[in-house]
Amino acid sequence: MMKFKLSVSSVLAVSLLLIVSCSKQSTNTNPGTNPDPATPVPGPADTITSGANNNMRLGNPTMAKPESAMNENYLINQVYYIESYSRNRGIPNWVSWHFQSEDKGTVGRQDDFRPFTGLPSGWYQVAGNSYSYATNGFDRGHNCPSGDRTSSYVANSSTFYMTNMIPQSPNLNQGPWSELEDQLRDNFVGTSNEAYIIMGSYGQGGLGRGKTDTAKTIDNGRVTVPKKVWKVAVILPKADGDDLMRITANTTILAVNMPNAENLYGTSDAERKAWRNYLTTVAEIEADAKLHGVELNLLSNVPEAVRTALKAKKYQ
After folding, report:
1. For labelling alongside 6, which of 42, 68, 76, 119 has CA 20 to 30 A away?
2. Which pTM does this prediction carry?
3. Which class does domain 8-311 fall in?
């Protein structure tokens, strides 16, 4: 069961991490596809959602830290999202990001799946071709979606680090999970709202395409196939000021928790809407994760009374 203790130095490290990401305009030099003049130019602003809109504004649910000793709960600031990464599982525990219409542009999918070379020395780097539905029966499923970062080539390319991926059943990834991403982006947020979103996974054992038995790991045991995949989104109208102070018990919150199993889903228009069958509460996600050895404290930065109300709230 994951339990963590904070030291003063750790708090300072995390604080520094968030301060560093507080510029609205990008000076990021992460690798990405260099735009050809004939291709679409980047969208509105090369926005790094930071400062008042920083990617971890609602909290650090496992108190992850950017220290190599925290190999099962290693905090990585990828600028366009923040994640807790597990060395032994080879996948993120969770990924957190802020989304608003300014993050949408005209840039297409870069599809440059690749290892993240910024991991501590000696850690295995999952390669872009380490798994796929053609070889293992699982998609490289985004946590922070490509579609949420289309304002620039660099922003979109950042979502293709393999530290942002999990082995996800193709029918789930391409069906209801994709539909949920579209609904959040286009309908829940649109142009007038903004959202704080966090996605994670836990457990071991998923069913891939063309398989009859669940797989616990792939890539020669170096990448865990999660059993459950969850997402929580807090949605509120755009406004100036500290968003934490604008979140109330009446704020819209959406939570889903879905088994990572190919046989449960489909990709027809009707089947894509099946994410609604898996609506749940944050409290229920936390309780189920705990049964699988993972302690989560979601929305930890939200004032306690509001946090308690939101955790018990199921989207209707």
Report:
1. 119
2. 0.86
3. alpha beta
